[in-house]
Amino acid sequence: MTSNPFNDYYVNQAGSGIAGYSGVRFQKGYGFFGRLLSTIGLPILKYLGKRALKTGVGVGSDLLSGENIKDSVKKRLKATGFDIVDDAVEKLKPFRQAGTGYRRRRKKVNKKKRKRKGNKKRSGKRKLSLRQVRALAKGRKSLKRRRRKQKEDLLF
Q: What is the pTM of this model?
């Protein structure tokens, strides 16, 4: 009986025919729950296991010293619970936020407002010469005095 040549080819591909194409015997998943268990669950279980072992040793030493088992277990579990809460608070301190949550307002910077030069017609006002503008900038005489003097000069 002759076998199908295609059948042999696919058996080689799927099986362990070519070494480079064979998969890992047991594959490890990296899904959500796999990461959740490995990154959060295992460290918590490890920590709680250590604390439980210390509590058990403490209860055993109390029993050897002659204390009541019920009172000893209550006392040790209460102390261990407070220790676990304290450790959790210490671990979470770096993630604590500070402040009110409101953004600070930026301080307003007072900028000098410049008058815009426009194409507006001036109603009856004469332009000042450069010398007059410089004199005004120095504060020698006020604008009203200058204009009054100009009007007097025109009349006489």
A: 0.44
